[in-house]
Design goal:
alpha+beta; 5 helices; 32% helix; single chain
Length: 412
């Protein structure tokens, strides 16, 4: 091969190498990665890191029940003559709520009174006879001392006195017996007037439900009506094992019900079951709610919100900003100058609906809330709102630099 051809081939190779090097530099500066795919900035949405108070709350559902409920029933059998209450009527302590036909019990009381009078008369007669026997015994003793009365006469007088003394004791016992029988008859007669009573003088009680009508024949302990205390009502909720340790007596709960949209009621946790049911793995919790106006009724469905904890001046980020990389939970912090996002592992505290508390490290600026599933540490980003701004600005450029001469305004 000639020398000229060698020189020509060498020049061509050098030119090809230089062209390849320029192409490689251009590709590396224009964002072509090692896999041959172009590295395009990821469009994301962001939100600022905030400093504010945050609450850890639990939401539960439950049912309202009356603070106390009891059934009114007769202690004796009889015909229901009058029922003095209807459902919803207020009830006071000691109020008579129903009347039974008491003619038979009145007769029994009258008979017991008559038998008592007979027993008292018999007692009086026995006492008079005892006084006579006592005087006869004393006279016989005096005559015996004078050797006028015989020993047998003295023994007979003494026996008569003792006999009358025993009859007086029997008469006294009979009076007590007849008196007890009269009291029993009077008590049975009083049972014909059915009244209600309770120890607690507080509260607001109403008739809840009627079970019988007037004229019905009742046996003892037949339910007549129910009495409810709704001056203070109880909300019953059930909590799972995860929340059980967070529930404490005395904590405040805020309740709402569909019956009164937009109205909030405040209650206090008063009772916590000491066990969780095996079937549901839930524990019963009772919340007492003042109900002076009687708005809340037993059986209403309620929603309860209980505050477990509250932190002031906490660093919070949206829950949507949390993601995982390499088994670590963290957020992508936006670096606006370089238009990049860096992954920062974080330690999360309490959460409240759509916000989470960041305990460590200290954060500021903005975090990525949408699009972080496409990011890695140091990825290039463009904020969605800025894309629109840049697109709007670029759309104005061709109009200004279109190269067309300005046309004169049309004369009218």
């Amino acid at each position: 091969m000639s020398r000229k051809k060698l020189i020509l081939i060498s020049v061509v190779i050098i030119i090809a190498v230089l062209a390849g090097w320029r192409t490689y530099k251009k590709a590396s500066t224009s964002g072509v990665n090692s896999t041959g795919r172009q590295s395009v900035p990821v469009a994301v949405e962001t939100a600022p890191v905030q400093t504010r108070s945050i609450r850890n709350t639990g939401a539960f559902t439950g049912t309202l029940v009356a603070r106390s409920r009891f059934i009114v029933a007769p202690k004796i059998a009889g015909r229901l003559e009058k029922l003095l209450l209807n459902i919803g009527d207020p009830v006071e302590e000691g109020q008579v709520v129903a009347l039974l036909d008491d003619a038979e019990y009145q007769q029994q009381a009258d008979q017991a009174q008559a038998e008592l009078d007979v027993a008292k008369a018999t007692l009086e007669e026995s006492r008079i006879t005892l006084e006579i026997a006592e005087r006869e015994f004393e006279r016989t003793v005096a005559l015996r001392q004078k050797k006028i009365a015989s020993e047998s006469e003295l023994d007979s007088a003494k026996a008569q006195y003792n006999n009358q003394e025993a009859k007086v004791k029997v008469a006294i016992a009979q009076v007590a017996q007849k008196n007890a029988a009269l009291k029993a008859a009077q008590i049975r007669l009083s049972y014909a007037r059915i009244s209600v009573s309770w120890e607690d003088r507080n509260g607001f009680r109403v008739a809840g439900e009627r079970f019988v009508d007037e004229g019905a024949m009742l046996a003892p302990n037949t339910p007549i009506l129910s009495i409810l205390d709704i001056g203070s009502i109880t909300a019953v909720i059930h909590v799972i094992e995860r929340d059980y340790s967070l529930i404490k007596k005395g904590k405040t709960a805020t309740l709402t019900t569909d019956a009164f949209p937009g109205k909030h009621f405040t209650g206090e946790i008063v009772r916590i079951a000491p066990f969780l049911k095996e079937t549901s793995r839930q524990a019963r919790v009772e919340i007492e709610i003042p109900n002076p106006d009687g708005l809340l009724k037993p059986g209403m469905f309620i929603r309860a919100e209980i505050e477990f904890a509250k932190h002031e001046n906490a660093t919070v980020v949206p829950l949507s900003a949390l993601t995982r990389r390499g088994g670590l939970q963290g957020v992508f912090i936006v670096e606006p100058q370089k238009k990049k996002a860096h992954f920062v592992p974080v330690t999360i505290g309490i959460t409240d609906r759509d916000m989470a508390e960041v305990l460590d490290p200290s954060l500021s600026g903005e975090v990525v809330t949408l699009g972080h599933h496409l990011l890695e540490d140091g990825s290039a980003i463009v904020v969605a709102g800025k894309i629109k701004d840049e697109a709007g600005a670029s759309s104005e450029i061709p109009e200004k630099n279109s190269g067309k001469p300005d046309l004169p305004a049309k004369q009218e």
